[in-house]
Every structure is written in C-alpha cells, then in structure tokens.
Design a protein that fits this description.
single chain; 7-stranded mixed sheet; 3-stranded mixed sheet; 7 helices; 35% helix
Length: 180
C-alpha cells in the first residue's frame, strides 16, 4: 500500500463517546493515516471521548453533523460503549443506509457489527462479531450469516471480531477501499 493509492480517500471513523475499545480505534486509524487516508473521527459530541483502556481522543465532528457523501468509507469502532451510544443511534443507522445506497465501504468491529445489522445492511451477508449471546442473537434476528472468523469481507462490508483483530480489520478495510 502506498500513500498515493489512498491520498484522495476519506474515512469516517465512528466511536462511542465513552468506553470505545482503544485498539479498535487507534490501530486501524494509524493504518489508514499511514496509507495516506484522511480520517475524520465522529462521536455523539465533540467532547473528548474516553476509551476502555484509558485512551482519549477529541472527535472532529458529531455523528449528527456527518455527511456520508463526503467519505469513501465508514468504520465503526467497538467497545462496551457501542451498546449504549451506537447500537440504537438512528442518525448513525441512517448514515449506514445512505452509505450502502451510495456504494461506500462499510465496516464495524467487535460488538459494533450489531449497528450494521440493525441498519438492515447485513441481511444475507456473511459477517463476524464479538461472540456473545446478545450479539449473535442480533445478527441472527437481522438475517446476517455469522462466521466465527477474525475478519469477514462480504462485498463492500467488512466486519472484525475483537481487539486482537484490529490490525487485520484495518488492513481489510484498506484493501476493500482500494477495490471500491
């Protein structure tokens, strides 16, 4: 991957305001930026967001101010805060549906593939998720085909399983973005 391949690419990175999973935010973000991608971080507000492991980041914009047509991909970080801040976020679900309509790369890691499922874009698609009774039920209820794998790429949709898959997830997003 060279910087020139991605120099005009833009990713909207969504995190929970509190309790995002540090490595699922920072590892892919570092990969994206090293490849030359412009990353915009969004959360519920632009107040400093706090990770589960103590990391902090100041979001560039609020999710409600994001316009999906300005980005080539949307990446949703995981962490326990995803359940509280992202799973039921109707604005985020609308962004995901619009991203799907506009044929953007859509991705989520850890428990955040539930957001994609609730937005209706995993129906009939293979995906992975952090394995728990709640997350597996959500994927099944919304018609996703669960695979117990580190990373699953289904067309333009990329899902990652857990913090240990953050690097492979970020690389899969970049590879999918290159083909998009």
């Amino acid at each position: 991957m060279t910087e020139t391949e991605y120099k005009d690419k833009k990713i909207l990175l969504i995190i929970a305001q509190e309790q995002f999973r540090d490595e699922e935010c920072f590892v892919p973000m570092q990969l994206f930026e090293a490849a030359g991608v412009k990353v915009t971080v969004a959360a519920e507000s632009t107040k400093t967001a706090k990770g589960m492991l103590g990391g902090t980041i100041k979001p560039d914009i609020a999710i409600s101010d994001a316009r999906i047509e300005d980005y080539d991909a949307i990446v949703i970080s995981g962490g326990s805060g995803s359940r509280r801040y992202l799973w039921d976020n109707k604005t985020l679900q609308a962004l995901i549906k619009e991203a799907d309509t506009l044929k953007k790369v859509i991705s989520a890691v850890c428990i955040s593939p539930v957001v994609l499922a609730r937005a209706g874009i995993l129906k009939g698609k293979e995906s992975t998720v952090f394995k728990s009774p709640d997350t597996l039920r959500e994927l099944k209820e919304h018609g996703a085909v669960y695979l117990d794998q580190e990373v699953v790429v289904s067309g333009r949709v990329v899902t990652g399983r857990d913090p240990a898959s953050a690097d492979a997830f970020g690389k899969a997003v970049l590879e999918t973005l290159k083909k998009a």
